[in-house]
Amino acid sequence: MHRRTFLPVAAAGVAGTAAWSVATAPPHDPLIIAAMPPGSSWYVFAATLGQLLEQQLPGRSMEIFARGGGTGNPTLVERGKAAIGLCQVATAVWAWNGLPLAFHGVQHRRIRALVGGLNSVWMTVAAREEYLSRTGHDSLATILRSRPAPRIIMKPPGSTVPVAVDMILAHYGLDRARIAANGGRILQVAVNQIPEMLADGRADLYFETAIKGHPALTEAATTAGIRFLDFDQGLLESLARHGMKPRPLPAWFKGQTRPTAAVDCGTVLIARDDLPEDIAYLIARTLCEKCDVMIQAHKAWTDFDPPNSHRLEATGIPLHAGAGRYFRERRWL
């Protein structure tokens, strides 16, 4: 059997061209999946899904745009730079509504859901034990309002994390400028740099989106001596208004003695409204009927529940017509 090479899409090869659209692309053109860099669960998801689709679409190869992220991928799909993409349920809602913090008021009304509820992704925070011991702080609110303010470390723009952090700061009457004015810093670096910077004492407070076995959180918890902090009730309610569900982060990491109060951003696979219905149908069917293969590739999808993966609480945005046809045929919709 002829096997096509499954490669990441070079960023310059996409960004430097006119908008790509499945509706106008020749059948032999690659189908581009917006994910995240190699090593991430989303990259594994995209690679596994791509291989499954290649088996069912002879002559059609899949390519991964491996430099996307939770907030970047909806824009890639909306602009036709990718055929399908992964994002959080929360960020799909933000994109649909044009949330100013993330999408500058630009509503992304061409994105559609294919399959939702793929896995839980928790927004959480941890502080270095040495910092907590030295300052005597014991809550997120106290830490953020302190003087000097903490050195906050997180991923670069394009991820869900910076947007959520801005929401958290706003809840406490703060913003990045106020953190800096109070003697703190905002450090945004590649995720693989974060554990070392924490271990070296160059940061105090770490915000992250977590799944079981998250590499950077696991390393930081092992080498940097961190403690996971609860989100207080007021913060949980505030973030819930932005599409993030209050749900405890299970006690998976060193530094957790019990589940930690956090929010679940969810995961949904999206497409643009001009993705051909037969392709959207095939993708929805493949994910729902080959979910055992997806789980074997990465345990993050163990809790995926196909019969409920079309529901608005699982997708955040309207279904693509082709996906809707599949769910109706299964009598789930």
Summarize the structure.
This protein is an alpha/beta fold and 333 residues long. Helices cover 38% and strands 16% of the residues. Strands 6, 7, 8, 9, 10, 11 and 12 form a seven-stranded mixed beta sheet that branches. A six-stranded mixed beta sheet has the order 1-3-2-4-13-5, sandwiched between helices.
Describe this protein's structure.
- The protein is of the alpha/beta class.
- The chain has 2 domains: 29-120 and 266-330, Periplasmic binding protein-like II (D-Maltodextrin-Binding Protein, domain 2); 122-264, Periplasmic binding protein-like II (D-Maltodextrin-Binding Protein, domain 2).
- 38% of the residues lie in helices and 16% in strands.
- The protein contains 16 helices and 13 strands.
- The chain has helices spanning 11-15, 41-56, 72-78, 89-97, 100-103, 129-135, 140-145, 160-171, 176-181, 194-199, 215-223, 233-240, 277-289, 291-297, 312-315, 321-329; strands at residues 8-9, 31-34, 62-65, 84-87, 111-115, 122-128, 151-154, 185-188, 205-210, 226-228, 245-246, 263-264, 268-272.
- Strands 6, 7, 8, 9, 10, 11 and 12 form a 7-stranded mixed β-sheet that branches. A 6-stranded mixed β-sheet has the order 1-3-2-4-13-5, sandwiched between helices.
- Helix 8 (160-171) packs across helix 12 and helix 13 crosses helix 16.
- The longest helix has 16 residues, at 41-56.
- The radius of gyration is 20 Å and the shape is elongated.
- The chain starts with 7 loop residues before the first strand and ends with a helix.
Write the layout of secondary structure elements.
Layout: E1 8-9, H1 11-15, E2 31-34, H2 41-56, E3 62-65, H3 72-78, E4 84-87, H4 89-97, H5 100-103, E5 111-115, E6 122-128, H6 129-135, H7 140-145, E7 151-154, H8 160-171, H9 176-181, E8 185-188, H10 194-199, E9 205-210, H11 215-223, E10 226-228, H12 233-240, E11 245-246, E12 263-264, E13 268-272, H13 277-289, H14 291-297, H15 312-315, H16 321-329
Parallel strand pairs: 1-3, 2-3, 2-4, 7-8, 7-9
Antiparallel strand pairs: 4-13, 5-13, 6-9, 6-10, 6-12, 11-12
Helix pairs in contact: 8-12, 13-16
